[in-house]
Amino acid sequence: MERHQYPLYLAPMEGVGARPFRVAMAGIGGFDEGCTEFIRVPKNAHCKSLAKVYQADELGSIPLAAQVMGSDPELTAQMTLELILRGAPRIDLNCGCPSNKVTGRGAGSSLLKDPRHLYEVASAMCKVSTVPVTVKLRSGFDDTALFEDNLLAAQEAGAKHIALHPRTKKEGYKPPAHWSLIKRAKEILSIPVIGNGDILTPADAKRMVSETGCDGIMIGRGAVINPWIFHEIRGMQCKNFAELKTYLETFVQHLPEGMRSKNGVNQLKQLCGFLYRANERLLEERTPMLRTPYIDIADFLSKNLPILENFCI
User: Fold this and answer.
1) Is the distance from CB of 248 to CB of 241 less than 8 angstroms?
2) Closest CA to 68 of 136, 6, 119
3) Angle between helices 265-277 and 241-253 (to 10 degrees)
4) In Å, what is the CA distance from 186 to each residue of 27, 154, 175?
5) Which end of the chain is more exposed for a tag (fewer CB within 10 A), N or C?
6) What is the pLDDT of residues 230-272, one digit of tens each?
7) Residue 5 DSSP one-character state
């Protein structure tokens, strides 16, 4: 499989991967589809606040899938219908979030404890949906004992593809991601398998496809570290400082209203912390950047943009 023959997805990520980052990434482009961070299923799935959480045209011409997180089949199905009405082209079920606040409510990676329940939730979504329903999951909760059962449950429920992050909930984000499990998923499933985890460079993406036979690549943290990674996977070299400046300015413009002054500095620090870590020229500047008490966003940008110019050299 050649590097340009498989789809590239921007992974759903809570926190740094919220709307400001997604919109900034859309300005750089290179990926085929984005996805929201998880949207909690409320008791009333027709909640008006969904309009603020999901906007189908958020990324312009790039499709934006909606990821839901819940454990009640009926409510999750209602949420699916509501998101379809709002224009979602794909609905994804979160079976991977490792947060104790999430798993304590029976959602996220807790669904991996009971393949039958995973099936019931995904099946309820698929039965009412007029768009593809997919499942993003980890390899298990405490261990991989139910790994294959969970994969088959998602497929039998009607999922159009699965995206696999091959770590258990217990492993969190500790390296390495066990890519051999992506290969195993390909061997037992007839639906497409999207590989996710530890893709930080174009070489990583090429190796994952070669080693696992996966049908697509999903990148989260690697895109925060290097916003051009999708273009680079496609064989393009297009880093430039003007685009990086626009990327950061777009991120700021889409911060919530109350965070565009001093409160937004911490969000920018988090984002730039990844950028600084990605380049040897910037590493020694990373700790001072994170520790400096900036007055506001304008102060942060004026002092850090000259340093970040080295990112594009």
Assistant:
1) no
2) 136
3) 150
4) 33, 14, 22
5) C
6) 999 998 877 889 999 999 999 999 998 767 666 789 999 999 9
7) S
Cβ-Cβ contacts under 8 Å for 161 (sequence gap 6 or more): 132, 134, 191, 192, 193, 194, 215, 216
Is the CB of residue 36 less than 8 Å from the CB of residue 60?
A: no
Read off the pLDDT of residues 60-113 as tens digits, 9 standing for 90 and up. 999 999 999 999 999 999 999 999 999 999 999 999 988 887 877 888 999 999
Least confident window among 31-35, 80-84, 187-191, 259-263: 259-263
Considering the four listed CATH numbers 3.30.420.140, 3.20.20.70, 3.40.50.1820, 1.10.510.10, the one that applies to the domain covering 8-233 is 3.20.20.70
Give the pLDDT score at 2.
Answer: 44
| CA distances, 86 to each of 65, 133, 312 (Å) | 11, 15, 38
Tokens representing residue 238 in the block? 């297009």
Name the residue among 170, 57, 38 with its Cα closest to residue 108: 38
Q: What angle do CA 93, 59, 203 make, to 5 degrees?
A: 75
The pTM (predicted TM-score) of the whole model is: 0.93
3-state secondary structure 173-229: CCCCCCHHHHHHHHHHCCCCEEEECCCCCHHHHHHHHHHHCCCEEEECHHHHHCCCH
- Asked if 157 contacts 185 with a C-beta cutoff of 8 angstroms, the reply is no
47 is catalytic: no
Residue in 35, 95, 97, 272 annotated catalytic: 97
Q: Where are the domains of the chain?
A: 8-233, 241-312
